Structures
1.
Amino acid sequence: MVDAMRPEGDAGTVILVDDEEMVVSALEGLLQLETSYRVLSFTSPVEALEAVERERPEAIVSDFMMPGMDGIEFLERARALDPTSTRILLTGYADRDNAIQAINRVGLYHYLEKPWDNARFMLVVQNGVERAWLFRQLDERITELDSANEELHAMRRRLLRTFL
Amino acid sequence: MALDDRSSSQELEKALAENRELRSENEALREARRELEVGLEELRAAEAEVVNNAKLASLGSLVAGVAHEMNTPLGSLHAGHDTFRRALTRLQEILADERVDPEELDEVRRIVKAVENVARTQDLAFERLTRIVAELRTFGRPDGAEVAMVDLHEGLESTLAILAHELRRGIAVERRFGEIPPVECHPHRLNQVFMNLMVNAIHAMEGGGTLTLRTSASGNEVSVAVRDTGSGIAEADLKRIFDAGFTTKQERRGMGLGLLISRQIVHQHGGRLEVQSRPGEGSVFTVTVPVRLPAGAATAGGGYDGREEARP
């Protein structure tokens, strides 16, 4: 029933950021071939943040070691822009400990080690996109319930005023 | 006459005896010399081994760094190749189907787009791997005796490229390259000096900092200064840094021969290696070499290179 929430023809948007162009082009090629997501890739975290604000992606995949802004800071800022997106960190083996320490700070969904396995990468991204849909659906339901609740309260007040 | 004869025969015998004695002394001397030669040979072998060990230690960290540098392009190629195979299979499936409809052509276009991205990955990764291999080749030219006229900036750049991984963590590189003429030198040996000085600078800046490379020319000399903003060298240590086996590095990253070897190499080029340091502020090591190798230096041999020592 999750699919019912999706706008027609929109499979979801994934944003990729890694300062190594060869990494993002490899990931982008894979997702283009095997999924119907809209994939936006960046080598600059600053530009990627602008895209996060503009595009509201379901999943964000970030490298850890990047000049200027590391993956943790990037994902922290992406989270502030849109907490419902799924955040995935791609780390080099040597950076693993640093990355694990920061998992809670950015509400990380998953971390993947480089070199990554394509099949596993896709599985994590697909689950991540699905998860974002569920979150957003839940978010909308809660908003709907809130406003229904609000309406009920107003009705009750009106009724009370009418009959008392 | 008879007396004379006798005395002359006595003298002759005496002379013969002396001669014998001299001959045996000579023999002993020759034997001693042979022993000394063997001893000297052993000493030379031991020296070559010590130096070789030091080279191996720095080679070990070099190789580890290069292996790390190759990880990203190799990992990217691996992932790209996997996607390539997937795409190929899909294209083959579409082509095998004789009733290809226009909708399928859209699918083909999508796959081609994916393959274009993977081709980009492979271009970049191959280019990177090729560069790493080329850097290694210019750095470690096997023939140590080779003399060439080189732009020292090239050696500095290739050394920086090899150290790229070490430099990534919080160390900025500043190049203050002046106009310098080509220098006649053993390029791989001077590169070894630059490598030693830069590695020391990086080790001195555990918490990050700036590595400044400054080059300049004055008269017939060219200078390369390697400056760090690291821990600096205590005054008491400053006198000992060129001593064999002296090191302050905690994890025994080397054998404490780096600066000794560096200074030897610079001396062989008729140059000098100077140091200025202030604890807490950093150090600067300056290599100054003449533009032309002094006569004899080109063939005098390394004194640190085992292969050359073995030459008669």
2.
Amino acid sequence: MNALLAQFIPEARDLLEQAGAGMLALEREANSPTVINDVFRAVHTLKGSSGLFDVVPLTRLVHAAEDLLGEVRTGELALNSEIVDRLLDSLDVVSGWIDALEAREELPVDAEATMTERAAVLRAWLAHRPAISMGNGRVSSNEPPAWLSDLPEADRMDAYGAASGRPLLAWSFDPEESCFFNGNDPIAMLQHSPGMLAMRTTSCEPLPAFNVLDPLACWLRFEVLSLASREALEEHMRYVADCIDIREIEPCELVIPRGASAATPVFRDFVRVARQQLELGDLNTLARSISTLLSMVAPESLQASALRWCKVHLASRGIEGRADLERLIGLVETGTAATPSEPIETIHKKVDGPLPQPADQGAATHRELAHKIALQQVKILETSADAKSITGRLESVAEVLKNVFRAVAADASAEVDAGVAAVALSNDIGQLRALVSTLDSHSLANNQSPSIELPRAVPVYVPPPPSLPAASSESLGEAKGIPRVLRVDQSKIDVIMNLVAELIVAKNGLSYLATRAEQVHGSRAIAREIKDQFAVIDRITQGLQVGVMSVRMMPVSQVFQRFPRLVRDISRKLDKNIELVIEGEDTEADKNVLESLTDPLIHMVRNSLDHGIETREARIAAGKREKGVLRITARHENDFVVIEVADDGKGIDPRRVKAKALQLGLVSAEGAGQMSDQDAANLVFTAGFSTNEEVSDLSGRGVGMDVVRSAVLKAGGDVALRTTLGVGTAVTVRLPLTMAVTRIVTVDCRGRIFGIPMDLVVETAKIKSDRIHRFKSMETFVLRDAIIPIVRLARSLQLPEDVQRRDEEAVMVVRIGGDRIGLVVDGFRERLEVIVKPLEGVLEGMPGFSGTALLGDGRVLLILDLQELL
Amino acid sequence: MPFRIDDNVVTIDGHSLVEEAQPLFEALLGVDEPIFDLGQAQTLHTAVVQLVLASTGRVLKAPPDRWLAACFRDRIVA
């Protein structure tokens, strides 16, 4: 399987579980913004991740769910149970598709049809249908985007010319912060996007200082003009459909003259003449007039911007769209649309070609240009003029010179006014010429004029304070609290666990060697050394086992998290009002143990819901709260994890159970008569037993509790049931924390050795034979005021009876179910940790034994299945 | 490694991948007022582009690709 897909599948399941749990929580507390955001984020992430694979139906269905949740999040849609049902249904479908991906690496053949149907159901809830579809549901509008005016004028002009009157797309792209981790390279996507005319790069939000930036978090945003069709663009960006916003615009919407107004009398003259030329259709003369005026005005002024747009318009459209042209010409006169000026280098690029990129070179060139413009103004004054026009010319030149000086960040208004006055009074241009010479780049070098600061092309780097060393990537990660989690294939852990288990068994061989060294070779010293070495290896292997086990330990919440949904669905189906209480979900157990627990728990919960907790009417009639309570708790008890499912329902009626058992032939009439209420209740664990007359699709098939018992016993645990008629029922499951290594104690019986799981052993005792009494047909003895029934192992295994009478018996007290039983053996031996292998070959299916284990001396040990044997 | 630093001149050549972002970031932490030579940069991953933009650096030579070059033209709005 593709490594990326293999990583996606468990992540998708996690996200689906988060979303499902969150939606159930939302049903209870619909106004919790935290929960809404969590659910939305999970669905959003799932959608984004799925975009990496060819699973379009999956992505689209999740997208529809995301849209619905988006409206819930913004408050446009009130959440109700029906919406939750539909969302959960859709996530169930997606969950099934994830299973299919895992099994076959592709979605089912009907996925597209299913998606269409489900997505339509979800979208039917959307309060506002999207005016324009974005991929599959992104809401957009047709208003020109606000950022359009921030695009460099040169870019807008290029796009305007390229569009030739056709509509174009103005679209923005806000990649997700984590997009790099999804394998996305936003700029590469843009480079290959269709029909791109212009692109502006900006940041999504204010940047932090450079030294605390996360280099792997994307914070760039892109604004693009494109001539592509919407369909082509949506297809290209389909995997990030939720990150783009597409607007269709007319080319005229790009015409946004910008700059500070610099109204002077010369503009009025120009506008008057330009309108005449326009009226006459003399576009060539008009174009020349515009160029002439452009050479005179401050390039960053609004009027200069309008003039440049006039030029572009004339060049690309001629007289077509004359109204737009007249509007621009009018703007030159009124100068009303004053907006912040654009970066000056952008303007220069359009007028005089591109400037060199480095800022210092740009500054020098900028000053040279200012000097050039100013010299032209001086030359204008040197040409002859009639008395009527000299005043307007002086005003115009003065305004242009002031603007030129302002453009290089030097206010020389007073000096310009004085120079112009000198020209007016005595036709003396010397003063102005001297002033203009200060703009010469040589004078810049000589530091004879104000310094020039141009806009920087990059954000400012804020160095760290001297007292703070630059943070390393590791400390940054820690500061952000990023959990360092390593996803590892379970099979790899299992391999290590199996090797550890083998090591533990091999370790047992040392103990055997020590015994041989002492008993066969008579070397007590070597035996002691071997035992010392055994102790060291034992300590290390135990540490190793604990370490590996901790990797496999998982909280029972992994199993419990499905119950809120299960209880919700079943209680709605049964029309019962049931509150689920979960406690101890942080309790940990081995992953295999938890997996073995899943099915039994589901059976137990279904039984409680179906048979335990009464209907609303029955509860009210019984004087109970209408709402029933199902409590699932988990806790540790020694080396066991104990799970209890308890309800406050009607309990189990022992008389009804006995009657049903009699009817089914499971007990005799005599047996039923002698049976205690507790024993009667335990009959529900018998295969095929059910008191429910009707078989429902939830339970009542007579297999539920039997399956529970079988699964729990197979996992090395036990199950017990407590019930009180009219009060409720509790089923308790005890499972070993781990199933990998089994601790056993070995016993002798007629010259043979057998293993008994330590989990079942309560204690061992040597009992005087005269303390063993016969009660009815059973031997018993009293242990600390409790009567313990006795079973002789040799008899149970049909081994030869011991003819020799003993003064005392070796009794191992074991717990089977909730009962204690004394198992009489010939002797106790050692405790071992072994790997129990299932019975194979001729031993397969042999009753009374649960498996075999290898001993340190190479012998095979039979492990007793006491539940079955006793 | 497709980038090298000589004094404060950071030259990025060839095809830079996302994997280069972290080492470049760490390297730039030690460079005052870096100057970037991207003239031989055939492709630049977005993670690398944004590091260049976020640093104090100026770009001596823009990448040959038109759209990559466009990334370094405008001032980032902070």
3.
Amino acid sequence: MRRRLWLTLVMGIILIAVMVLAQEEPIRLRARMAIHAGDAWELTIAVADGEAGDQISVALLNGVQVLADRLTLGSGGAAVWRLPPGQITQAGDSLVIVRSGEDEVRRRLRVDPLQPATVDFFTTTNTLLAYGQDSATIMILPRDIWGNAPASSRFSLTVRYPDGTRLLPRFSYAGGIGWTEVTSQGGPGLVRLATEQGALSAALELQQTPATPHQIDLMVEPGCVLNDGRSVIALRADVRDAYGYAVADGTLITFNWAAGFGYGRTVDGQAVLRIPAPAEVGQTLYQARVGRVQSVLTAVEVSRGRCDDGR
Amino acid sequence: MGGAMMAAKARVKFMIFLGALVIAVPGVVISVSMVAQFVAYFQQGADPASIFHGHALIIPEAESARWVGTRPMDGTAPSLPQQEEIISAYWLAWEALSRAQQTDNLSDLPTYWAGAAYTQVVAGMPAEAVQLQSHSGHTLHLSFFSADGSVAAFEDRNFSLVMSIHGISHSVDATASVVMTLDQGFWRIRQIEVRYHDPN
């Protein structure tokens, strides 16, 4: 008796399960649910209680664009929504929404990006201080022909320093942007950077600059002049940073002497100022200065008769 | 009799005067106010946002958009003013998209969208039968901020959109990976990937 009761109960449960499963969904969709950006796509819709001529609303939320249409059901309550190539272009998880009367069904459509077709290769700075004292952030923004960022990056980075050293740092990559820090190395000069993935490549250059002036050597040429009122002297300042490299071109140097002052800008570490020789016979002292750094006093001899070099 | 007539005549004149006064005073006030507005209009400088096609700094309400994580994986963290500038521009970018869908006027989009993202957002226009009615719940998690403060990458998790499609409102949730860059003083969305949440 108890066994029969259990059997009836199990049969009842099975019957209910079959009935629930057999109950037809109001809207059924059939389509590829993973495509690549730009692919054509076809969605077959079957509305359980739909009749030929009924209208349904279909929409695809694809990135920041929404493709929407109204379809008319054919015989058997079915309709096909065809989207030609080049319409579903935005990568990510798109959302299909189909509505028929009060019934609505939603499905996710995975849209994968294509291989990167372009890459923006850029940096936070074009110059950085040499000798390992500075660093720059190097960034990439790769994207496919539709502007989609790849899910992951395989872009390599090659850094060639002025001293010939070559480094291969790796990009961190998240949310469509890749980045890495590049620290200066060696003396002043060009740092060449190249990024590459397959046939796609990009390059940029950074300028490693010398440090601030540390040492000024002043020369006065010639060292002796006649007080003939026609002689010209050249004040030549050789300006180096703490590592012995010429300071950046264009560094402004101030030349001082008892009767005045003048300016010169460095080219390859040297600043030159040509001025008329002093008229007074005897020694005149000159000094070159940039910021707090100054040269030792350097003298020019003004002679009434002749200089030791035979003039 | 004559005196009474004179008094009545004077009273009528006074009533006419009072009536004219009642009409004249507001008229004079309105005229002066309009002249003042006219003068003030020519004394004001142009709105910088209008002439440079830039945007104002509008900080959205916390329930509309807020920063949840501002410490990037590596790199520097943006200052509070920088966070405000970014979230303001991001919020306004969605507003511009909504406005463009409602009016079919795309002239505001380049103010907030640039590069590939601009191309993508324009690709969906004109959005016939589609309108972004509201967007809210943007929670921004920073993943990268460049040292020079000109590039920001973040994830906007679980924000909500309400869209009208063929006149019926649909509420959807999504997450977006966003790269914004500071172009000519304004933050713009340069890259975006939206992932709508699976309803099942």
